[in-house]
Amino acid sequence: MKSLWFFDDVNLFKVLCPHKFKAYKSDHDFDAYKKKDYIYFEEDSANKVYLIEKGKVKIGYYSEEGNEVVKAILTRGELFGETAILGESVREEFAQSIDNSTSICPIGVDTMHDLMRDNQTFSFKIYKVIGFKLKKLERRLQLLLFKDAKTRLIEFLDELCADYGYDCEKTGDKVIQHPYTQKDIASLIGTSRPTLNILLNELKEEQVIEFTRKEIRIHKNIA
Length: 223
What we know:
The protein is about 35% helix and about 25% strand. The chain is built from 6 helices and 14 strands. The strands form 4 sheets. It has a 4-stranded antiparallel β-sheet with strand order 3-10-5-8. It has a 4-stranded antiparallel β-sheet with strand order 4-9-6-7. A 4-stranded antiparallel β-sheet has the order 11-12-14-13.
């Protein structure tokens, strides 16, 4: 396994997919999902991890009152179901495709353990990503519990800026080109889509941001 091949991730990391290795290619396929298809449910057996080749996946769970709580919305190059690597035997969340052309690279836990054992650098990357995701999730849950909706949106924009932002040389503004819909963002910050529209327009009126469907510009004098 000297020749490693990695997916280019759009924000966090580069991660291995076994279909590029002769030892695994023959019995490895990608799985296709349509919008609203579930990859797994709560209480399902946790025997695989998954890498997104394309599309988007929502990770969440249902509260005791039956309300959906969205933990994360993941895009190309991102890994999920990774707690199976750490010994989780049963899923504590669901994973659902929210795109009509989602393609998933499933990796058996035993295969993943083999790859991690055979390549120390890869193993380090996986554990680093797991730790990063847990810290990010903890921070987001704290925001949902203790911050108002506008503060949650501002903090989320900071997160988007770190993951997808770049400096505009002409104006010095921060430009964020992201893969999320307004419905996605509303779910992630725990509010409704109409409320999100109100908050975005408030920030626009305050000259904090400009926004279109796939781009948000944070003005230099604010950022």
